[in-house]
């Protein structure tokens, strides 16, 4: 088959790769129809690190990239009971062991095998667990990690359910956003935009959408967000909250300056959820966080366990994800899609790749 293959930093190529085969009878093979690039894929593209194990500046065996994929089932293992050939599926972005308590609850991200080595983790970010920027993808433990594309959900929305929307919604949950709350979302890439739309969907009274890129932050105004530049955010939010500060911040960047700003914006006793993938050495103002008695969470969305709440919100039109996909490529032009997405060229927010 053909696939986008990681050959090292800034070197993802469309090339031939072995067809996947079913390696466990609980797995299935998906013929990929559409896929997208995640902001976290750029860490690999830049030669950064993810977690404690993956350092992309070092040589490693080739693998297919991508964890945001939808497609049609073309082969099922004998142990798969929920899916049949011909079904169109949304996948969760990763693979757990498939049998621990947390995997069975859909919290694949909290699999008890995580961090113990092996191939547990997101698709397409490490050798041995090939991703869905490919003509075919082996979906692991498909009964717990994939769902049929529900009625009333567009292909674009289905792709958002694989990761960006689930992650944004996870931020809303972990930052304890309640009806009437004021919320700031720092970083208006796809995940930040989806977090802002989800915060409004669950009843936030005001959602400030902060990004230095004017075009990016202005997109949030389409669904009721309040676009702010980083420079104007502190003063505007202080004014609007009578000097008290904001109830919740969802941080979707993961670097020192934005984390510091998040802590400054929060009211005493407020909540911060960090969704941005943190790099080694990133500093948090812990003393201020303690003095302000902040609730703090940093994590990776479980995806599957959020679908039950999220899918009806999408079907009911409460979350639409409009305007997130700005560019379309064929998978064969995936190297260019990566380049443009990384360069923030041409007003890109998110790219759709079709096969
Ligand atoms: Zn992702
Ligand atoms: Zn597990």
Structure commentary:
By secondary structure, this protein is α/β, with parallel strands linked by helices. It has 2 domains: 2-163 and 303-354, Quinone Oxidoreductase, Chain A, domain 1 (Alpha-Beta Complex), CATH 3.90.180; 166-298, Rossmann fold (3-Layer(aba) Sandwich). 28% of the residues lie in helices and 26% in strands. The chain contains 12 helices and 20 strands. It has helices at 41-46, 101-104, 142-145, 155-162, 164-174, 190-201, 214-219, 230-240, 256-265, 286-291, 304-315, 334-343, and strands at 2-6, 12-16, 28-36, 49-50, 54-55, 63-64, 68-76, 88-91, 94-95, 121-122, 136-139, 146-148, 182-186, 206-210, 226-228, 246-251, 266-274, 295-298, 325-330, 350-354. Strands 3, 7, 8, 11, 12, 19 and 20 form a 7-stranded mixed beta sheet that branches. A 6-stranded parallel beta sheet has the order 15-14-13-16-17-18, with helices on both faces. Strands 2-1-6 form a 3-stranded antiparallel beta sheet, with helices on one face. α5 crosses α11. The relative contact order is 0.15. The mean pLDDT is 94. The site of one zinc ion has 5 residues, from loops.
């Amino acid at each position: 088959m053909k696939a986008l293959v990681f050959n090292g930093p800034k070197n993802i190529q469309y090339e031939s790769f072995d067809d996947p085969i079913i390696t466990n009878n609980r797995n299935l093979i998906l013929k990929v129809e559409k896929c997208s690039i995640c902001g976290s894929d750029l860490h690999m593209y830049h030669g950064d690190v993810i977690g404690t194990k993956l350092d992309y500046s070092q040589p490693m065996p080739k693998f297919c990239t991508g964890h945001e994929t939808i497609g049609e089932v073309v082969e099922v293992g004998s142990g798969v009971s929920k899916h049949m050939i011909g079904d169109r599926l949304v996948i969760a972005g990763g693979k757990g062991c498939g049998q621990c308590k947390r995997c069975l609850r859909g919290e694949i991200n909290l699999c008890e095998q995580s961090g113990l080595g092996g191939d547990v983790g997101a698709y397409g970010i490490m050798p041995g667990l090939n991703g869905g920027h490919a003509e075919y993808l082996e979906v692991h433990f498909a009964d717990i990690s994939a769902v049929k594309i529900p009625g009333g959900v567009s292909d674009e929305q289905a792709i958002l359910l694989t990761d960006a929307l689930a992650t944004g919604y996870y931020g809303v949950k972990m930052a304890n956003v309640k009806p009437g709350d004021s919320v700031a979302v720092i970083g208006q890439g796809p995940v930040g935009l989806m977090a802002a739309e989800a915060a409004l969907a669950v009843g936030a009274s005001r959602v400030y959408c902060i990004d230095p890129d004017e075009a990016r932050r202005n997109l949030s105004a389409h669904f009721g967000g309040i676009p702010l530049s980083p420079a104007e955010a502190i003063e505007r939010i202080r004014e609007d909250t009578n000097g008290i500060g904001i109830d919740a911040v969802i941080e979707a960047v993961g670097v020192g300056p934005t984390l510091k700003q998040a802590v400054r914006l929060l009211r005493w006793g407020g909540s911060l959820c960090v969704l941005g993938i943190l790099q080694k050495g990133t500093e948090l103002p812990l003393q201020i966080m303690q003095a302000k008695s902040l609730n703090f969470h940093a994590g990776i969305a479980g995806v599957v366990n959020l679908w039950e709440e999220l899918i009806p919100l999408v079907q009911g039109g409460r979350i639409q994800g409009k305007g997130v996909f700005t560019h379309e490529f064929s998978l064969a032009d995936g190297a260019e899609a990566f380049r443009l997405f990384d360069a923030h060229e041409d007003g890109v927010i998110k790219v759709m790749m079709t096969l």
